[in-house]
């Protein structure tokens, strides 16, 4: 019951921490600094775009590291997911939240790239932007929303991660496995150890 998966947990947690922390810092600090320092919309957008462009490869690595850790932990805990009451539900919730966070991150990058092209003073970027006209006000509102959704979703993943940690306590595992067994065999009597918890 108490196998160690230190490397997988580290990959999972460090990747998620970077994904959450980077997205929150970007939404609060980078975007706020860009607005404060930019003399006009284009300059502010260029500052923010430059910062997000530098962060993107680091974020991609963090997400990849988190997904490797998550997949490894899922494989290592497959028996618990199948036999402990509540673990499958929290695992499904975590998977759905991860998918939503990935989608929001990708959508933010697509919008950010469009705004980067629209605000660029590079002639070749201006040509690319002209081929795909953009309502910058609408795109900026959507981007601001998406950039806040990412830390909200990854924060939710951190909360589910805490729940998974609680579910791994030996007493919780035993109780959860017994509850799972009872759902499969509802006429079994409840043992004394459960009543005296």
Task: Give an overview in words.
By secondary structure, the protein is mainly alpha-helical. The chain has one domain. 85% of the residues lie in helices and 0% in strands. The chain is built from eight helices and no strands. It has helices spanning 6-37, 41-76, 78-83, 87-119, 123-131, 136-167, 170-184, 192-195.
How many angstroms separate the termini? 20 Å
CA-based shape: elongated
Tally of separate helices: 8
Low-confidence stretches: none
The largest pleated sheet is described as: none
Number of strand elements:
0
- Look at the structure and give the mean pLDDT: 84
List the helices and strands and how they pair.
Blueprint (H helix, E strand, L loop, with lengths): L5 H32 L3 H36 L1 H6 L3 H33 L3 H9 L4 H32 L2 H15 L7 H4 L2
Helix pairs in contact: 1-2, 1-6, 2-4, 4-5, 4-6
State the gist of this model.
The chain is mainly α and 197 residues long.
Structural key phrases:
single chain; mainly alpha; elongated
